[in-house]
Design brief:
five-stranded mixed sheet; disordered N terminus; mainly beta; Immunoglobulin-like; 181 residues; three-stranded antiparallel sheet
């Protein structure tokens, strides 16, 4: 009797398992944030993630007022950089199930004027990499007020970059003009 009951349960669960397996293994194209469409990479199937800076702009540099904020016990001059992502879950570094191959889980790195404004001892220029808006630190720039180029990149849990189908880092960049310092 127990054998028959297990067989019946297996027959009921088998179609459900097949449906879940098909849903998890399907793959489609997506924008990698750098303008190239492509399929999934890494261990996960599905559309490639995207990141887009969502500053309102008239086609030129967007003017943003600087703010003072306490970061790691010290005051810093920062600007908020709002962004949107698709097919990506933001979590603190090292918190993804697979920190090196999960193309749909990780955090962002912020770069201001490439690495010109990166604080000493840090590989990138932001304090919190898991929410929008990103916080770009300007107090370590040679000049706070004025024109800057901000770039946001998607990174795996181990800080390695998430790559698009064309092998480039999935990223978004924008020109800003910081004011108010």
């Amino acid at each position: 009797m127990l054998h028959t009951s297990l067989r019946t349960s297996s027959l009921v669960l088998l179609p459900l398992f097949a449906l879940l397996t098909a849903a998890c293994s399907s793959s489609s194209s997506g924008n990698n944030g750098s303008g190239t469409d492509g399929g999934a990479t890494g261990a996960d199937a599905g559309p490639l993630p995207t990141i887009t800076i969502t500053l309102a702009s008239d086609g030129g540099a967007t003017s943003i007022a600087v703010q003072d904020m306490m970061l790691s016990g010290a005051e810093a001059t920062v600007v908020p950089i709002p962004f949107a992502i698709t097919s990506f879950t933001l979590v603190p570094p090292e918190m993804c199930a697979s920190n090196t191959t999960d193309d749909h889980c990780g955090h962002i790195h912020v770069y201001v004027d490439d690495n010109a404004c990166t604080p000493d001892g840090s590989p990138y220029d932001n304090s919190d990499s898991t929410a929008s808006p990103a916080i770009a630190i300007l107090s370590t720039c040679p000049m706070v007020d004025g024109s800057h180029n901000v770039r946001l990149e998607l990174h795996h849990g181990d800080h390695s970059p998430v790559l698009g189908a064309d092998g480039t880092v999935i990223q978004s960049s924008a020109a800003i003009t910081a004011t108010g310092q």
